[in-house]
Description:
mainly beta, globular, 4-stranded antiparallel beta sheet, 11 strands
Amino acid sequence: QVQVVESGGGLVQPGGSLRLSCLASGFTFNNYVVMSWHRQAPGNEREFVARITTTRGSTDYADSVKGRFTISTDNAKNTVYLQMNSLKPEDTAVYYCRAVRGLSVTWGQGTQVTVSS
């Protein structure tokens, strides 16, 4: 069964850090997969945050998170991470992991990140 499961969300103060994890199963990172993070705040559409290719490690970021967020993978663990630093209240959202393998798209269930004092 192909699935991705996020973890690591929570409540953090402005300026703080969190690391999200996304564990993938049913496929391997040793093949070409595009793993990405997206987020959706209440009343807003889901938006792209960051992506990485599992074989070459190429990355791409939304302008709103460049210099603050870092996406990475541990291919041995079939896991993708999102290190989030200098968090702002506007980063508050449900964060979703997505895997794209050819025409197959798999979404996780999401993890809540709340940035508030």
